[in-house]
Amino acid sequence: MTTTPLLSARRLSASYGDFQALFSVDFDIATGEIVALIGANGAGKSTMLKTFVGLVAMRDGEVRFDGHDVSRMPAHKLPANGLALVPEGRRLFKGMTVEDNLRVAGDRARAIWSGETPWTLERLYDLFPILGERRNQQVEKLSGGQQQMVAIGRGLMTQPKLLLCDEISLGLAPKVIGEIYEMLPIIRQTGTAILLVEQDVSLAQKSSDRVFCMLEGRITLTGKSTDLTREAIAEAYFGAKHEMD
Amino acid sequence: MKWIDAIIQGLLLGGLYAQYAIGMSLMFGVMRIVNIAHGDLVVLLALIGISAAVAFGLGPGFVILLLVPVGALVGWVLQRGILNFVVGEDPLPSLIATFGLSLALQNFMLTIWSADTRSLNIGPLALQSVNVGGLHAGVLPIIIFAVAVGLTALLDIVLKSTRFGRGLRAAAADKDAAVLSGVDTKSIYAQATAVAVAILGIAAVFQAARTTVSPSDGGAQLIYAFEAVIIGGMGSIWGAFAGGLILGVAQVVGAYVNPSWGILIGHLVFLLVLIFRPQGLMARQ
Q1: What angle do CA B138, B139, B145 make, to 5 degrees?
Q2: Contacts of A100 in chain B (CB under 8 A)
Q3: Best of A73, A91, A148, A154 to disrupt the B interface by mutation (most B CBs within 10 Å)?
Q4: Residue A29: strand pairing partners
Q5: What is the number of CB-based contacts under 8 A between chain A and chain B?
Q6: Single pTM value for the model
Q7: Concatenated DSSP letters for B149-167?
Q8: What is the DSSP letter of A191?
Q9: Could you tell me if B254 and B272 are in contact, meaning their C-beta atoms sit under 8 angstroms apart?
Q10: Taking CB atoms and an 8 Å limit, are B178 and A104 in contact across chains?
Q11: Are the beta carbons of A95 and B170 separated by less than 8 Å?
Q12: A204 and chain B: CB distance < 8 Å anywhere?
């Protein structure tokens, strides 16, 4: 994991107007790795992901992805370079069918090297059989869990080397969350790295190789998921103030 | 018999309104832009077509072949040069920009073509008609209607089952999510406006062939296109087509009741739809 990382961010700063959301953040993820990003609401997790994909302009710093500086790359060009985001709240294309939602991303996917196994509609329907059954239905008619599967599938159809997943468990029943998280190792098998933003700390720890914890726009803890103690996470999650109570 | 005739003539007139309306509906559906200069673009293209026909002795078919690419280019430049800077959540900036463009275009056309009315000479086709069971229908209006059906069907297929159409619908549904899926929204907006104005290139030839055009006519054409889009339901392509036909029928039936009521009845039908079904007849949900 000390080889060239797939994505690395250095001194990343971002703000919304006068409010600074990220303070000189450093972050790395390697090929095929699953990293979880935890932290309280407003810690800057989503902002970091949006900065990676160009939806939030970075004020300072650099993002390198797959050997290139992508700091100034227009957001719509990143999927074709292998960097995709499954946005918070799913953000499906309402009024369009399941299959058309997936095709929009597939139409503009990264070119596949020979020897790679591309994500196809058929492979997605194998992974999520319910989507195959409902392929011609409009997405708003699907349940929340099924919509989340479409959102993940749409990300995969861009043939990502790194899939950023922003709170894919939000608002779903525990059983459905379990079903979706079971897919992550399968997705990783194809060589795709995954960065998860997750509210549930123990789920985040359980499903990742490494954990990053954020607090008020800064990274406060990093480490192997299996090495981190609950105490260390609690301190990084709530900050120094927590120690006083 | 008189009323059947009125309805047929109305449907045929509505074919032209439908040609105006589908492009406007496309632009509204994808970008939430109400293009105030829509009618002026019809007039501009019509005047270019008439001048080209006179200068080079072109027939109407060749004028269409000329105006479609010219329209596409005008639309593309309009979007890239102006509208991409004002498109967004707030509809007001684009409204003001296209309003200003409308004024500028009208004055530009007055300078070039003066206030004279002109029309496109299409020879005997202008007067030919067919007679079915005592009902007369002009050949030109039938062609206009058929072209309107063809354009609407073609646009519908393009939207439903091409890469461009999927990207367009995705950008309309959720712009940021479309960007995350690799859709270049500025480019796709430029293509959408190019398509919308290219369709006006066809409509312009028919407008210039069936009646006269002068630089200040754009306002009325805009109102008809706008009313057709509202009647049918904002953003629905077949809705815009149906809205065009309903407006055409309302105007002709109104004119049969009293020759001076035609336009008025069209406006009244539009207002009734706004009161009782403000989302339009074919809007989703």
Answers
A1: 95
A2: 166, 169
A3: A91
A4: A7
A5: 71
A6: 0.91
A7: HHHHHHHHHHHHHSHHHHH
A8: T
A9: no
A10: yes
A11: no
A12: no
Cβ atoms B218, B105 nearer than 8 A:
yes
Q: How far is B276 from chain A (nearest CA, A)?
A: 24
Whether A77 and chain B come into contact, CB under 8 Å, resolves to yes
Beta bridge partners of A27: A9
Chain B residues whose C-beta sits inside 8 Å of any chain A C-beta? 163, 166-167, 169-170, 173-174, 176-185, 284
What residues of A are in contact with residue B170 (Cβ under 8 Å)?
93, 96, 101, 104
> What number of H helices and E strands is found in chain B?
11, 2
SS3 A55: coil
User: Each residue's pLDDT tens digit in chain B (285 positions)?
Assistant: 789 999 999 999 999 999 999 999 999 999 999 999 999 999 999 999 999 999 999 999 999 999 999 999 999 999 999 999 999 889 999 999 999 999 999 999 999 999 999 999 888 888 899 988 888 899 999 999 999 999 999 999 999 999 999 999 999 999 999 999 999 999 999 999 999 999 999 999 999 999 999 999 999 999 999 999 999 988 789 999 999 999 999 999 999 999 999 999 999 999 999 999 999 988 764
ipTM: 0.92
Amino acid residing at B199: I
In whole angstroms, what is the distance from residue A201 CA to residue A221 CA? 13
CA atoms within 13 A on the CB side of B152: 27
Instruction: Say if CB B200 and CB B214 are below 8 A apart.
Output: no
First to last CA, chain B: 37
